[in-house]
Amino acid sequence: MGEGDAESPPAAEKKGVEEEDDDFGYRLFPDRNKKPQSFLVRSLFTFHNKCQLMLRLTLETNPYAQLLLEALKQSGCTVFNDRHFSCENCDGCVGGGFDAATSQIVLCQNNIRQQSHMNRVVTHELIHAFDHCRAHVDWFKNVKHLACSEIRAANLSGDCTLMNEIARFKFGLKGHHQTCVRERAIRSILAVRKVSKETAEKAVDEVFDACFNDLEPFGRIPHSKADAKRAYRDFQNRDRYTANL
User: Fold this and answer.
1) What is the number of structural domains in the chain?
2) Nearest Cα to 19, choosing from 160, 143, 164, 119?
3) Which EC numbers characterise this protein's activity in its record (predicted)?
4) Which of 3, 88, 125, 150 is flagged as catalytic?
5) pLDDT for 5 beyond 70
């Protein structure tokens, strides 16, 4: 998934006859293996321009993204728009991805058409970036590490809000949020790793409780934009209190 002359991810670990060599989901992001296009060429494509405009609006106005950007900065991993985000064409229905080899977030300009979708994708991938910054995540060889970050991303990004689930024609009452988080984490693993569904389910189940209850840097599950705004204010106040100690 390395772009240009960036270092490629390590080769897949041999796992017997159960799995063939894993491409770590890079097949979904074909532009990762192409040489970067000139600004003039990219400007001719409205998908790219629209993606850049929606990204800027998300980073400037969305409280989920704003909190994560500040948390990343405080953790020593300042995010720069031109360096850490890339609007590209992707395969399938994938909305985005986090390229751990380059510490870059890929936004699928041909699949993201609405601002609300951009908000969720950016937030989801920024959670992966935050996990990459604060912990020694073995994205390529340890499926439990991947499962943990996917659980956190599904739980905290707004992927499983009531309105999003209704839009997917999925309804439930008690425990539905947890069910949604588990299903989306498994789905994400299967999209980027050549593992069996049983392997993905086992990895998610083994780390689910610990990772579902890890709410950093939000401190709560933000079920709505209003929740995210409150979490952002609390995060800023927490920083001010710590600075005065």
Assistant:
1) 2
2) 143
3) 3.4.24.-
4) 125
5) no
- Residue where a domain stops, chosen among 88, 118, 136: 136
**Residue in the block written with tokens 């991303």:** 153
- Determine which of 11-20, 118-127, 185-194 has the lowest per-residue pLDDT on average: 11-20
- Write the pLDDT tens digit of every residue in 219-239: 999 988 999 999 999 998 875
Q: Is 19 a catalytic residue?
A: no
With CA atoms as reference, report the closest residue to 107 among 146, 22, 117, 225: 117
Residue 123 Cα to chain centre, angstroms: 6
Q: Torsions phi, psi of 33, nearest 5?
A: -100, 5
The CATH number covering residue 95 comes to 3.30.2010
pLDDT tens string 51-93 = 999 999 999 999 999 999 999 999 999 999 989 999 999 887 7
Q: Which pTM value belongs to this model?
A: 0.81
In this structure, the answer to whether residues 71 and 115 fall within a common structural domain is: yes
Domain of residue 113, residue span = 24-136
Q: Are 93 and 176 in the same domain?
A: no
Q: What angle do CA 72, 77, 238 make, to 5 degrees?
A: 35
| Residues 132 and 145 both lie in one domain | no
CA angle 19, 25, 26 (to 5 degrees): 125
* Alpha helix ranges (H) inside the chain: 39-43, 46-61, 63-74, 81-84, 115-134, 143-156, 162-167, 176-192, 197-212, 225-243
* 5 token code pair: 């002359």
Per-residue pLDDT of 119-175, as tens digits, reads 999 999 999 999 999 988 999 899 999 999 999 999 999 989 777 666 665 666 667
- Residue 25 contacts residue 1 (beta carbons within 8 Å): yes
